[in-house]
Please model this.
Amino acid sequence: MLRVDELVDMNGFEVPVPPPGGRMIAYRVWKIRRTEERGELDVLQYLELVPASELRGMS
Model:
């Protein structure tokens, strides 16, 4: 399960800080919404693209 403000790669795996390379596509989880309808739980995770300049600044 992802957490808000966590950095993830394109496959949804956590990105270590500092990131291993400057040429990486990473996303930040900025919102998680849980909805339940007819006994089915849906978890929606909203992501934002993290700019390369911000990733370079983390190292």
